[in-house]
Structure formats: structure tokens, C-alpha cells
Amino acid sequence: KPTSTPTPKPTSTPTPKPTCTPVPTNTPVPTNIPTPKPTSTPTPRPTNTPVPKPQPTSTPAPRPYPVGMPVKHTASNGIYKVTGTQTLEYTKPVNKKSSVINIPDRITLNGLDYTVTSVGSKAFKNNKYLKKVSIGNNVVQIKNYAFYKCPKLSSVKVGRSVRLIGKQCFYGCKKLRTLNIQSPGLSQKYTGSNAFKGTPAKMKVYVPRKQAKNYKKLFLKRGMRKTVTFKGIR
Predict the structure, then answer these.
(1) What is the residue extent of each domain of the chain?
(2) Which of 65, 128, 139, 149 is the most buried (most CB within 10 A)?
(3) Are 126 and 152 in contact (CB under 8 A)?
(4) CA 36 to the chain's CA centroid
(5) What whole-number percentage of the chain has pLDDT above 70?
(6) Rg (CA), the chain
(7) How far apart are CA 104 and CA 77, in angstroms?
(8) CA–CA separation, 179 and 95 (whole Å)
(9) What are the distances in angstroms from CA 89 to CA 144, 176, 186, 198?
(10) Which pLDDT value is given to residue 197?
(11) Per-residue model confidence (pLDDT) at position 200
(12) 3-state SS of 65-121?
């Protein structure tokens, strides 16, 4: 009989005991750390930028017109001639068909005031439309033939500064019914020959009261009719 080979008993492998994993120690909680406060950055203040002040622009002073230059002024219906430093002579109307003319004391041209000091020679000579004229208080001279033979002229008012009425100034104004002269300064020397010749016999003449007697003698010498009625005013 074969001998029985003993079956080897398995050796028991010892089960390894798990090693204890060390528990991590508690991480220390940090103590209260002060939260840093944000530093306030100062807001920069805007610097005042100086605003440049506008420099006043110098307006050039208006220049007077040269002596002798003709200028038109529609508002007063006149064409004038410059006679001096801001003085003018009325030479003729812009509209020759105007029946009423008012020659002003002064007018403004190019921003300057001009004084009207005279009515030019032949300014209205043979004007067949003119009926009524008023001459400003700054006019000193009404020159020769200014109203010569104006067939329809019926009324004239002369301002208080007139010193000269030229020769044949109102010659042949056959319908001149009313002549009002406010100037006290007329004289024989500066009242031209035949200034009133050919004017109506029944014309009414108004003059300053104190000069009425002298003016009547003077005007009769200058062609006015003896039948004219003189009336003192003021």
C-alpha cells in the first residue's frame, strides 16, 4: 500500500492589523485679524481754470464825409452837399414831383449828426410840383434863385435862424399866398434884389412883431407889392 502523503495544511497568513492613521491635529483658528480699512484717496479738487475775458473790440469811429461831397438822404427827400464839419446844404429833392418839402434842422449820415445850414442856389428853380415848403430852424442861408418861378408854390415857412435870402429867391412865385418868416435877423445887406418880385398882391406875410415895420420897408424894396398884408407874430 502506498503511503499516504499527508496533505499540507495551509498556513494561515496573519491578517495585518491596520495601523492607526493619526488624526490630524486641529489647525489653529487664527485670532481676529483686524481688517485693514481702505485708505481714503482724496478726491482731487478741480483747479479753477481762468476763463479769458473777452476783449472789447474797438468799433472804428465814423468818419465825416469830405467837404463838397453830395449825399442822398431819402428819409428827408433831399440830396445834400457837405459844406463843413458836419454841416450840409440842401441842394435838391430826391423826388422832384413832391408837392410838400420839409427841410429838416439836422439829419444823421453814417452815424454822425449833420446840421442843415443852407438851401442851395436853384434848389427848386422852376419846380412845377412844389406847393408847400417848411425850412428848418438851423438854416442860415436861402441862396439865389432857390424857389425861382415855382408856379404852384403857395405856402412857405422860414425858420428862425435865416440871415440871408438870395436874389430872385421867390421871383415869379405867382401863387404864393402865405409867407411866414420867423427869423428876426434879416437885413438889407443880405436880402437879395428882386427876392420877392412877381409874388401876389394879396399875399399875407407873417414876421416877428418887433421887425414888422422894418421888414415891410425892406421887402417892398425887394419887389413885394404894397398891397401885401403884414402881420406881426410872437
Answers:
(1) 96-103+121-232
(2) 139
(3) no
(4) 74
(5) 78
(6) 57
(7) 10
(8) 24
(9) 13, 24, 19, 26
(10) 98
(11) 98
(12) CCCCCEEEEHHHCEEEEEEECCEEEEEECCCCCCCEEEECCEEEECCEEEEEEEECC
Spatial distance between the Cα atoms of 130 and 193, rounded to a whole number of angstroms: 23
Which residue, chain included where needed, has cell 428819409?
75
CATH class of the structural domain 96-103+121-232: alpha beta
pLDDT band at 30 (very low <50, low <70, confident <90, very high): low
Report yes or no: 188 and 169 within 8 Å, Cβ to Cβ: no
Residue 118: the pLDDT is 99
| Cβ–Cβ < 8 Å for 175, 202 | no
Look up residue 226 and give its three cell numbers.
404894397
Dmax of the chain from CA atoms?
210
The stretch 195-201 carries a mean pLDDT of 98
Reading phi first (left if > 0) and then psi (alpha if -120 to 50, else beta), residue 17 is in beta
The pLDDT value given to residue 71: 98
* 114, 87 Cβ separation under 8 angstroms: yes
Confidence of residue 38 (pLDDT cuts 50, 70, 90): low
Beta strands in the chain (DSSP E): 70-73, 78-84, 87-92, 100-103, 106-109, 112-119, 132-135, 141-142, 155-158, 164-165, 178-181, 204-208, 229-233
Instruction: Tell me what pLDDT residue 36 has.
Output: 57
The average pLDDT across 91-109 equals 98
Nearest to 162 by CA among 132, 199, 117: 117
Q: For residue 208, what is its C-alpha cell? A: 416877428
Residue of 208, 206, 100 whose CA lies nearest to 150:
100
In this structure, are residues 109 and 100 in contact, taking their beta carbons and an 8 Å threshold?
no
